[in-house]
């Protein structure tokens, strides 16, 4: 059994042994080898002497040398073919264990260690990684230790378990503090442990020095080679909850092959957990221990900006696959021009961005806290593609408040305008129109003050979508037209095509199909010439509705099947659901309510976990269908399907 100190390896081994006593009729042997104790470790000669006496050898007949003891031990265990259990606790090396392995093939040996004793694999060992307790088990342990106070404060008890890193030893220390202070509440201890700077010290204070939480990690740290210890301290300052070799190399300044070796040393020492191939994370308390180790201030101060710069470049590489032509305030995309593409599809790029989102948010928070503002607002802007396609709304709003703060501190009105635009889009997609309008009007004011016509155009476009979502089609068209004139003045054909698509969608929503079709057709022709298949697919949704209204069902279905193939490749539930809603409308026009219901049900399932205006629209369409009325007309302005790619 392998795991960090205090995770409960010994308790697990002893509990397992006690529960399986009947399986070992010849008895159990146990020895604490004290491999991680400040005292002298137990030598094989001492452990073997104890075992031989336990097996019935008279003390005066126990040999004096290890070689003679091993011979006698193996003779006894081989001759009797003993069915027994041998527990070797806290082993520091394979050399300490190997002499204690019985010859009998019927016996079982359980070894616990903080190190991966690779040398034992040749002897048939199997690795069992012991993680911290599941949260429910950790809470149950606290309930057992502190009784009614845990039941009286279930939320605080659950938080206490998390603050203890789910480590049994830390849980027992926290419980001891409560048991010895009967007037304290669980919330009081939680409040004292929330401060990361003092948490380890607080958890260690009630323990014996050699058994404290800090001491458990100190031994493993002190026995690291210098290069691994350096990386351990460095990564302790990395706020990302999970990381790969690449980002570890970026923040440490080492080559990736050097980092790979050092990371494996930390894994072998149970100071780091390998969660997947080349993916690592700290247990919470181990991270605090790493941060507490003395290191030059300069080294610590460089970790967060290095991490932010690395994530910014790698996110931009992914974004250039998803929306290659988008205008960006950050200059990083221009710096990457001509570099090889990292991902071979939109979905692959978005999957990577989604996996890294918790790490990016943690780095962003730390970057803003440390006032690395220039990096912070760019990191926030680079979240756009992921937010637009996958729509993790809580993270969207949280991250953009941080980014806007950073842009304001930089006095960068263009960056602030862009980020307020992005946050306004989140509110729009959530159906929170007053908040959306407030953000986008602020973005428009900032853009005009900075005399930046591109951000002004984007703000006008989004202001039009807010008006359209309110049902004010004439105001929406006014804003779309103003934005289109700016795009034309700037010579951005793609922007002009996108605004034609917006105007066509708004007219279609108002039931003005004859006016809508020329705009949508113009957008289709321009985008086809540009070669943007995703925006072509989005425009096809509106044209398919016009086809259906005109009785051209086959043409409508053909357009929508094409759109589903293209937008389905992005891995965006919202975009795929937008096609399903259009298919439902076409089916309803074709007097096929069962098929329409099936499309709407599928769309609701896709959107269920996201929420927002798109889900609300799908649910209302299904309710209307179930009540025998016609499905509502398309309102693409607030379900994110028309011409998003270049914004």
Structure description:
- The chain is mainly alpha-helical and 647 residues long.
- Helix content is 64%, strand content 4%.
- The chain has helices at residues 9-19, 44-54, 66-79, 94-97, 135-146, 148-152, 154-163, 168-179, 186-193, 196-204, 213-222, 226-236, 245-252, 256-268, 284-292, 297-322, 332-335, 346-369, 373-381, 384-390, 393-409, 413-429, 433-449, 453-470, 473-489, 493-509, 513-530, 533-549, 553-568, 573-589, 593-607, 613-626; strands at 28-32, 85-89, 108-111, 243-244, 273-276, 279-281.
- The chain has a three-stranded parallel beta sheet, with helices on both faces.
- Helix 4 (94-97) links the parallel strand 2 (85-89) and strand 3.
- Helix 12 (226-236) packs across helix 14, helix 13 crosses helix 16 (297-322) and helix 22 (413-429) runs antiparallel to helix 23 (433-449).
- The chain is elongated and about 110 Å long.
How would you describe this structure in keywords?
647 residues; mainly alpha; 3-stranded parallel beta sheet; 3-stranded antiparallel beta sheet; 32 helices; 6 strands; elongated
